[in-house]
Amino acid sequence: MVSGRVSNLSETEAVANEDIISADLETIWQKICAGLRRDLGAQIFGQWIKPIKLSVFDSNNGTMLLILPSEFSANWVRDRYSERLLMAWKAYHPAVSELVFQAQSGSAKIAQISKSSAANDSAVNSRQNVFPESKFRLDLDPRMTFDLFIAGNSNILALNAAQRTAAAEKPLFCPLYLQSSTGQGKTHLMHAIGHAFREEFPTSKIIYMSAERFMIEFVSAMRRNEGMEFKASLREADLLMIDDIQFIVGKNSTQEEFLHTVDSLISQGKRVVVAADRPPQALDGVDQRLLSRLSMGLVADIQSAGLELRRDILKHRLASMPHQHVSEEVVEFLARTISRNLRELEGGLNKLLAYSQLTGREISRELAEEQLSDILSACRRRITIDEIQRTVCEYYRLDRNEMSSKRRARAVARPRQVAMYLAKVMTPRSYPEIGRKFGGRDHSTVIHAVKLVEHLRGEDSEMDNDVRMLLRQLES
């Protein structure tokens, strides 16, 4: 279990407690860090994981305290990396069963933490459908509900199927198989199913976990001679949800247990949801019987989010924070540039918001390019200004030399301004750099062109259609 509690802690007081971090645990932590540095990349690791300090381990209840510099960073790491960190700890040191993320300042003692942990466990047991005889805890993110899921053409089938799975009426299909590439909304839908199903059936038993956790818990139960208890707990579920099922392939004993669990639940009329980054037929090394079960329900594919959906997600996120001002230019820039997955898109916006709050700097296009350089460089297709000029000239049937000419006739100047606008929206080039590519024009000329085209798009439907057509051609 990963604790959702983040509070303040004095390191001096922590060190005074009985169960101090041993040298062995420090060694394990260094190994975990080495793996995370490799998986997450040096920049993300350095910003969020490297500042973590081990504080206290309570061997009585398996609680590990991790200390971060601020409450903001503690919340950030807990929300995004808690399960990955817990799985890594359990792989090296099975006695670790809970992580608590805390900020540096303030005071708290391990006895207090143990006590509050036990109280919290009791509260969650009564509130979140925990199996008393097992370690399964329904740890749903309150931000991942159907109300907060933004629908678009790419995900509407999966959304409708997820809502039917959580409804009071028995679904027409089981299991529901959600399939998409990373960061397109599979996990959000699974959490939303859990929230809605619990609201519809308050006394129901729900299990949600990753395939990696399923595998670790199964192996641990077998080693403790608790295999029968583990199986019984799974098969008492009214709703079983397993995320990232692709990681269960190749593990024969785990596949066998999962197959029997799915068969048992389906025969009882219970509900099963699985998610993966590929369709069932593409799961290498999967038992054919399990493949048949996974394919027998509904396979709902979530396509990559289009520009309109990415734009809607950003605007919806900002609508919930009216005190935060982000210009239309920045929203458009992020929506167009961060296109690989929605997790990166929201993560990029969150980073800008956090940076602005902590430094007082206004969120601008320049700040976005500066702070999100790693994400942008990975996502951006290298469109050049030359390519933009050529495409614009073909669209408006102009000679290419007109992009650099001094002619001010509207038939020439307006396409040139559109090309300048597209160069600013679609490339990382600065205003002076763009000006030089358009016959050595001053940066103020480029700024004027960008603002004018932005204004005209809102006033002139023909202009907006021209720009949309050009954007589509250049992005294809």
Chain-wise SSE layout:
Layout: E1 2-8, H1 11-15, H2 23-40, H3 42-49, E2 53-58, E3 63-68, H4 71-92, E4 98-103, H5 110-127, H6 156-166, E5 176-179, H7 186-200, E6 206-210, H8 211-223, H9 227-235, E7 239-243, H10 252-267, E8 271-276, H11 288-295, E9 298-301, H12 307-319, H13 328-337, H14 342-359, H15 365-371, H16 373-379, H17 385-396, H18 410-426, H19 431-437, H20 443-459, H21 461-475
Parallel strand pairs: 1-4, 3-4, 5-8, 5-9, 6-7, 7-8
Antiparallel strand pairs: 2-3
Helix pairs in contact: 2-3, 6-7, 12-13, 12-14, 17-18, 18-20, 19-20, 20-21
Give a brief rundown of this model:
With 476 residues, the chain is α/β, with parallel strands linked by helices. The chain has helices spanning 11-15, 23-40, 42-49, 71-92, 110-127, 156-166, 186-200, 211-223, 227-235, 252-267, 288-295, 307-319, 328-337, 342-359, 365-371, 373-379, 385-396, 410-426, 431-437, 443-459, 461-475; strands at 2-8, 53-58, 63-68, 98-103, 176-179, 206-210, 239-243, 271-276, 298-301. The chain folds into 4 domains: 2-127, GMP Synthetase, Chain A, domain 3 (2-Layer Sandwich); 156-301, Rossmann fold, CATH 3.40.50.300; 307-379, Helicase, Ruva Protein, domain 3 (Orthogonal Bundle); 385-475, DnaA protein, C-terminal DNA-binding domain (Chromosomal Replication Initiator Protein Dnaa, Chain: A, Orthogonal Bundle), CATH 1.10.1750.
